[in-house]
Amino acid sequence: MKICFVGAGALGSAIGGTLAKGGSEVFLVDLNKAHVDAINRDGLIMREGGIDRPVKARAATDYSEVGVVELVIILVKSNYTQAAIESARSIIGPNTVVMSLQNGLGHEDVLAKVVGEDRLLAGKTYVGGVLLAPGHVIAGVAGKLTYIGELDGSISPRATRVAEEFKRAGLNTIVSSNIVGTIWDKLLINVATGAISGITRLPYGGLYKVPEVEAAALAAVAEAMAVAKAQGVVLSIKEPRDAWVMAAEGLPFEFKTSMLQSLERGLTTEVDFINGSVVRAGKACGIPTPVNETLVACVKGIEHRLMHFEHAPASVCRGKTMVYDKQSYVEHVAIRVKDIQWHIRFFREVLGMTLREVQGDADAPKQVWTIGGFQLISDPTFGGPEGRLGHIGVMTEDLEAALKEAGSWGVTHLPQGRNWLQLPDGLCLEVMQVSGPAVSQALAVNPRA
After folding, report:
1. Who's near 157: CB < 8 A, 6+ residues apart?
2. Tens-of-pLDDT digits for all 449 residues of the chain?
């Protein structure tokens, strides 16, 4: 099958790479240019059982070379579901099937508004993935189930065909006649720990040590189960404690929920598609959900604080670290120099900044990148002072949000690409998408401390 993953982070890369290894024609579309470039250059490096192996897959930041596909798999953050599927319209043909493997509830409703319910398959997976670096992922596939099904409960040829494609690649996949129940089962596990972990800032090892936290989690799951029952959903989880126990199975002490990770990075969470979906469904069927309403309110309050108060003027913050919803850091500064070899020797011998990458002949390179943030561009005929700034490379967590915001600041897009910006006074920026927690890790370093 020709399959496109809309969102190729940790999970999209793990599943997409597994399918590519099994012989599927896989396209990984993601805004993280460094990740995309690494996959196209070196293959997707997949670590399974502690061993790294490259897998050939095609990656892109847009859909210009993808063409119409047979299956679209959505694996972006829930908040971006509608924007993601709208951007992928060009690859959706008359017979294309669209399937979400995202956590939470309500994605199919969002997708149906754009592509129609008749195109949709529903899915839920317990496969895991961890993005180690651009183009390098840990794939937790062994023993992990994936469920696929029609929303009406029928066992259709297309669901069977997708499942067979998954199984051929080694993904343990079941065609479910109760995919809605399966989605709710996974939702209960997310309800048990996600928001409470985000609010308390506790990883799993601490979360399971506080009796009051457990009591609140069980109450939240009980509400969700009551809502599911009122909607006629058939669950395999029978008791709230089952979801609480299942949520932590096989996870290390320091494991953090995705909601906690988002809040630590100053990003909005998927609470609307987890606890928020329980609240909305409860209102629709007349079941009160006060615990989940409270959890949603607390998470929303934290998001609001991060966005509107922790980046107040310094006089208000009084020395606190300021946190923005969009976080970035300088990855390199590009400088034009007459004698590039002199500068290479200077930064290596005086400051120990060795070369990370070289373009061209090592004896006469066109440009080099040092470990430590310099991009030196050889320009022997340059008439200005030595060290003339070429551009600044900035890594950001949300490239699309940054580009959208930049549009209102009078910037000019340069011929090198849409992510190359010239500010009104002439300063040039190369803005790049970074993956995983790299920004928060970079910003956590205090070199003056």
Report:
1. none
2. 999 999 998 899 999 999 999 999 999 999 888 899 999 999 999 998 888 999 999 999 999 989 999 999 999 988 889 989 999 999 999 999 999 999 889 999 999 999 999 999 999 998 888 778 899 998 888 888 999 999 999 999 999 999 999 999 999 999 999 999 999 999 999 999 999 999 999 988 899 999 999 999 999 999 999 999 999 999 999 999 999 998 888 777 777 888 887 888 777 889 999 999 999 999 999 999 999 999 999 999 998 888 776 543 333 333 334 344 567 888 889 898 888 998 888 888 888 888 888 888 878 899 998 888 888 899 888 777 667 888 898 888 888 888 888 877 888 888 888 888 888 878 888 998 886 666 767 776 766 65
The CATH number given to 328-444 is 3.10.180.10
- Count of other CB atoms within 10 angstroms of residue 66: 17
Distance CA 401, CA 83 (A): 12
Please state the domain extents for the chain: 2-176, 181-308, 328-444
C-alpha dihedral sign at 219, 221, 224, 229 = negative
Which fold does the domain 181-308 belong to in CATH?
Answer: N-(1-d-carboxylethyl)-l-norvaline Dehydrogenase; domain 2 (1.10.1040)
The rounded distance, in Å, linking the Cα atoms of 168 and 24 is 9
- Residue carrying structure tokens 């989880």: 237
Closest CA to 403 of 35, 61, 42: 61
On the 0-12 / 13-18 / 19+ scale of CB atoms within 10 A, 252 is: exposed
**Taking a C-beta distance cutoff of 8 angstroms, is the pair 22, 92 a contact?**
no
For β-strands 172-175 and 92-100, DSSP reports them as unpaired
Q: What does the alpha-carbon distance between residue 259 and residue 136 come to, in Å, rounded to a whole number?
A: 23
Length of the chain in terms of residues written: 449
Instruction: Provide CB contacts within 8 A for 183, sequence distance 6+.
Output: 105, 122, 124
**299/165 Cα distance (integer angstroms):** 39
Coil vs helix vs strand at 257: coil
**Rounded distance between C-alpha atoms, residue 242 and residue 248, angstroms:** 11
Mode of pairing for the β-strands spanning 328-337 and 355-361: unpaired
For domain 2-176, give the CATH superfamily: NAD(P)-binding Rossmann-like Domain (3.40.50.720)
Judge if pTM exceeds 0.85.
Answer: no
Whole-number Å distance between alpha carbons of 205 and 8? 29
Contact 390, 422 (CB under 8 A): no
Contact 122, 186 (CB under 8 A): no
d(CA 101, CA 323): 31
